[in-house]
Every structure is written in C-alpha cells, then in structure tokens.
Design goal:
The chain is of the alpha/beta class. It has 7 helices and 8 strands; from the N terminus they run βαβββααβαβββααα. Strands 1-4-3-2 form a 4-stranded mixed beta sheet. Strands 5-8-7-6 form a 4-stranded mixed beta sheet, with helices on one face. Helix 5 crosses helix 7 and helix 6 crosses helix 7. The longest helix has 11 residues.
Length: about 170
C-alpha cells in the first residue's frame, strides 16, 4: 500500500472573492444596501470586513484566465454569500428598495431560521438569515420547548439553553 504524504504546509482560509462587472455598482450594493464595511480598497479589488471581496472581472480576471473571462468562467452558479441580520424583514425592505431581484421573500426554513434570498447586481445569490440564537429565542417565545428547538435546529442543547437565557447547567 502506498504511503500518503503528510501535508507539512499550513494553508489557512482568508476570504472569498467574487467577480463583478461594475465594481462601483457592486460596492454600493454591499455597502449601502447590505451595510458591509470596507476593510481595503485597491480600486479593482475591494475587501470587506468579514472575509469576502469583490473583483472587477474584466481587469482582475486576466490575472487568472489567459483571455478575457466569460460568464462560463466566472458564473455565479453553485454558491451563495451568507449574511445575518437580527431583523430580516427590515433587511428585505432595503434589498427591495434597491431594485435588486428577490429570489424568495422572508420564510421560515425547516430548521427554524427566517431567511430570504436575492441576487446581487451580478447575479450572485445572497442569503440573509437571522442569527440562530435569534431564531431559537423566537421559537421559544412561540411556545417550543428547548428539546424541540434543539431537535429542529440541530443545535446542541447547551447552545439552545444559552440562547434562550437559561442558566448554564451542570
């Protein structure tokens, strides 16, 4: 049996970068609509607090692809960017007011979290959901027991109890 070499290089995740057709339009969407803060602006690359960036595709894509990248190279299928907001209804109102297309309005997912999804200006899927502690408190206020919440959300009982304000158990 062949030996598998051990990885001796530490590789750490830092951020994802999505390709956008107009850096100004996309930056405005993420800053003004979704309330994201810029951590670095290099003109054709804009990084946001939280670990994602937008790259102007027709300029930065050339450093990756030998010719001008097509939508097939940079397409948005197969991924989404996830954000959280305590008030998903208010977040949806901001997105709707921006004119960006909404995929689905706020709904309660099978795991109890309220979410909505929309497209950014380049067609990347954006999900905005309430933080799970907020969802767990809402479910508890609605009459669900801690046991039911733990089962529905797939969260450990300790996290459920902490979220709904029970003292730490021994």
């Amino acid at each position: 049996m062949a030996e598998t070499p051990q990885n001796t290089v530490e590789i750490g995740y830092r951020m994802c970068a999505i390709f956008v057709s107009d850096i100004g339009v996309s930056r405005a969407f993420y800053e003004e609509v979704l309330g994201q803060r810029v951590s670095g602006d290099h003109g054709l690359h804009v990084m946001f607090v939280g670990g994602f960036a937008i790259w102007q595709v027709d300029r930065t894509g050339s450093s990756i692809f030998p010719s001008k990248p097509s939508r097939a190279h940079t397409g948005s299928s197969g991924m989404e960017l996830y954000f959280e907001a305590d008030d998903v209804d208010a977040a949806l109102a901001l997105v709707e007011g921006s004119g960006n297309k909404v995929i689905h309005r706020v709904r309660e997912e099978a795991w109890g979290q309220r979410t909505f999804r929309c497209y950014d200006p380049d067609g990347h899927i954006i999900e905005v959901g309430e933080p799970m502690p907020v969802a767990m408190r809402r479910l508890f206020r609605g009459g669900s027991t801690p046991e039911t919440i733990a089962k529905r959300t797939s969260m450990p009982m300790e996290m459920v109890l902490q979220a709904i304000g029970y003292p730490r158990w021994c």
